[in-house]
Amino acid sequence: MSNRARIRVPHTLVLLFGMIVLAQILTYVLPSGTFERQEHDGHEVVVADSYHRIEDAPRLAWYHLFLAIPRGFAAAEGIIFFVFIIGGAFGVFRATGAADALIAFLLQRMGHMPAVLVGGGMLMFAAGSSTIGMAEEYLPFVPVLLGLSLGLGFDAVTAIGILCVGYAVGYGVAIINPFTVFIAQDIAGLQQGSGMAYRLVLSGVFLVVGFDHVWRYARRVRGEPSSSLVHDVEPPAPSVTEHHDGLRGTHVLSLVAILITLAVLIYGLKTHGWYLVEMGALFLGLALVLGATGRLGVDRTAREFCVGAAELTTTALLIGFARSIQIVLDDGQVVDTIIHAIAQPLRSLGPSAASVGMFFVQSLCNLFIPSGSGQAYVTMPIMAPLADLVGVTRQVAVLAYQFGDGFTNILVPTNAVLVGILAMARIPYERWLRFILPFMVKVWILGSIAMVIAVRIGFA
């Protein structure tokens, strides 16, 4: 019997609950502490060197973790409701037959060059994250990617690898992401958008590494399906057969509605600052349009919407549990203590070593503060002055923040978007770790080299 067969991996919900318990234990072991904060452009920013312990801070009651879980659902309500609406909209889309028709069409036209589909998909997701900070917006692409990957003889891990690795590169080496790099540069006192040339070069390098990682796995699975990390997990969608009637007029209308919706979405995000509420409203409208273009009728549109939303109930549950981890750490007032403790040793290092240390510190911080902008407001006021002390430019500190925040987004279970994507694809978190950890090792090595080069060239 193989090791894989003997080891029984807990359900993702069990793992997340275990992390909530661990978070509560940390609140008993670590001292409560906080940084002073001040207002900066409507946001609270940490004051450097202002950390102090909170004397006689009350400890959380043993049952607090149970209270934190409903609060985690409340804190993540926006993305949870968005997930339900996305599920409903794509339930209607699936019922129109346009999704299967599109996938069959792509397989017929491009099935002989799957590497182009893999690389092109990664480039598209990287570009969206790198420029306008797309993340939650990628959830609607999961069903289509799954259908394409299964139709090409790959698996669900390949599909999510295309999405998540592209998304990680886009955030990790963001060129003009307004939610991460611009905020971090503003806090560090740098011109927004500065240092773009070096980040462009790094984007190309990391995309090549990411493509190689995903493509190697995809080819192995295609040649030997039993090597798939999810070979024993029922796929979330059936693979598309080669025998399909093709794209009909109603299918084309439905696909045009999807494209128009995505165009409106990008416009709203870029010019009007839309977020989950507006996106949810847009996809709800899309569901109604798809019901009309697909000639489903009012009753069937409603039924398919409910079925599609119900299919993502597990996804919504996992998102709520993931958000509860941060609730416990915040209530225990130990997040600032953790950040202070892991940043202090950097002061004694030389410039090159300190830059690499900043990268790893930011990676650790992302476990406790999975929000990119939130992490910038908490850590950059500490890291920017620290960069001055250790002899590196503040642009190097910003790059360390980008690497640490962006790449670990696809690793940490506290990232609700990652948890939601994996749940939609029915990929257990432990299986995902086995796929993504080797890539992360490459990222940590390559990122460390990039940080040292940045110090040597005086990246500014």
Give the tags.
69% helix, 460 residues, two-stranded antiparallel ribbon, mainly alpha
Tell me about this structure:
By secondary structure, this protein is mainly alpha-helical. Strand 2 and strand 3 (43-46) form a beta hairpin. It contains 20 helices and four strands. The chain has helices spanning 3-6, 12-29, 64-75, 77-96, 98-110, 114-132, 142-151, 156-172, 181-187, 196-223, 249-271, 276-293, 298-310, 313-331, 335-343, 351-368, 372-390, 394-408, 416-424, 429-456; strands at 33-34, 37-40, 43-46, 52-53. The longest helix has 28 residues, at 196-223. The model is unreliable at 1-7 and 239-243 (pLDDT under 50). The strands form two sheets. A two-stranded antiparallel sheet has the order 1-4. Strands 2-3 form a two-stranded antiparallel ribbon. The chain is globular and about 65 Å long. The protein has one domain (10-52, 64-456).
> N-to-C terminal Cα separation, in Å?
56 Å
Helix content: 55-70%
Summing up helix and strand content along with how strands pair, one would put the structural category as mainly alpha
Low-confidence stretches: 1-7, 239-243
The spatial strand order of the largest sheet comes to: 1-4
Number of domains: 1
Number of strands: 4
| Biggest sheet record | 2 strands, antiparallel
Number of helices: 20
Mean pLDDT: 86
Shape: globular
Strand content: under 5%
Q: Which series of helices and strands comes N to C?
A: HHEEEEHHHHHHHHHHHHHHHHHH
Query: Radius of gyration, rounded?
Result: 23 Å
